[in-house]
Design brief:
The chain has twelve helices and eight strands. It is of the alpha/beta class. This is Dihydrodipicolinate synthase (DapA-3). It comes from Saccharolobus solfataricus (strain ATCC 35092 / DSM 1617 / JCM 11322 / P2) (Sulfolobus solfataricus).
Length: 302
């Protein structure tokens, strides 16, 4: 399995009573799969995984697996918990369900040391017979996974196949790509920021796991496909559209609220509901002005 291209960190649709909107979830997964995204990451940060029970995380994963329109759309299940053994158990349940890979972040309560961090990921890799994607998001975990830990993990565990890095530092990406590729050329490095998609590709990275692709996946795909085909002029043009769209994040108090409001503004069947303590975003007029030139990217199929 090659981890590359446009992966969508799936938002979790809710009804007004905060229960999971199963029909909305089915629609969204189908929409993304039909548009040709390379992967869908369920139980993501923007998917409010920290507000889901373990049973709900499994339910979301099952619906995603059942709703994708093509097996070329890979399903990655977030299996992050603060207890390593619980993560292992959850990951094994996901394996039985048929996911293509699991995504695991550093513990997000305990500020563990480097050795403990290495042990955490190593125990999971040794006990879970699935491809594993390391999720580095220090904004939420308080831990920036050191490159030294990456180097030890990728040299010791062949099933650790890639990483999603949500870190605002091109210098970190440059060092990570350079040092990891000396050990494993097949290790995939993806950004978690929409803005970094094209710069990372130019640096030798593999793609991105980007929240706004929930709504307008064709735009991100145009960036990636143009770059892959060597059409750098088009890649730059589409990337500037992505950059303009990311201004939506400045209007709302969370990435999740931004994306859900965008889906509402685009008249998609996803309710503008987040689970407390998050709150919804109501800056509809500003967002409508931002998307008026993007209608060509909004058809429901390729």
């Amino acid at each position: 399995m090659r981890l590359e291209g446009v992966v969508v960190p799936l938002i979790t649709p809710f009804l007004e009573d905060y229960s999971i909107d199963k029909e909305g979830l089915k629609w969204l997964v189908s929409y993304l799969s039909e548009n040709g995204v390379n992967g869908i990451f369920v139980n993501s940060s923007v998917g409010e995984f920290a507000s889901l029970t373990l049973d709900e995380m499994k339910l979301v994963t099952k619906i995603a697996l059942d709703s994708r329109k093509s097996y070329s759309t890979l399903i990655f299940a977030g299996a992050s918990t603060n207890f390593t053994e619980e993560t292992i158990k959850l990951a094994k349940d996901f394996k039985d369900m048929g996911v293509d890979a699991i995504v695991v972040m550093a513990p997000y309560f305990f500020k563990v040391r480097e050795k403990e961090l290495l042990d955490h990921f190593s125990m999971i890799a040794e006990k879970v017979d699935l491809p594993i994607i390391i999720y580095n998001i220090p904004l939420f975990t308080g831990i920036d996974i050191p490159i030294s830990v990456y180097k030890m993990l990728v040299s010791q565990h062949s099933n650790i196949i890639g990483t999603k890095v949500t870190l605002d530092s091109l210098i970190f990406f440059k060092k990570l790509i350079s040092e990891i590729r000396e050990i494993r050329k097949d290790f995939s490095i993806l950004t978690g920021f929409d803005e970094y998609l094209l710069p990372l590709l130019y640096m030798g990275g593999n793609g991105g796991v980007m929240g706004l692709a929930n709504a307008i996946p064709k735009l991100h795909l145009k960036v990636y496909e143009s770059w892959k085909n060597g059409n750098l002029s088009d890649a730059n043009k589409y990337w500037r559209n992505v950059l303009n769209l990311t201004d939506i994040y400045d209007y709302c108090n969370s990435y999740t609220a931004s994306i859900k409001l965008l889906l509402k503004v685009l008249n998609m069947p996803i309710k503008n509901v987040v689970r407390p303590p998050l709150s919804i975003c109501e800056e509809e007029s500003k967002i409508r002005g931002m998307i008026k030139d993007l209608s060509s990217f909004l058809t429901n199929s390729k």
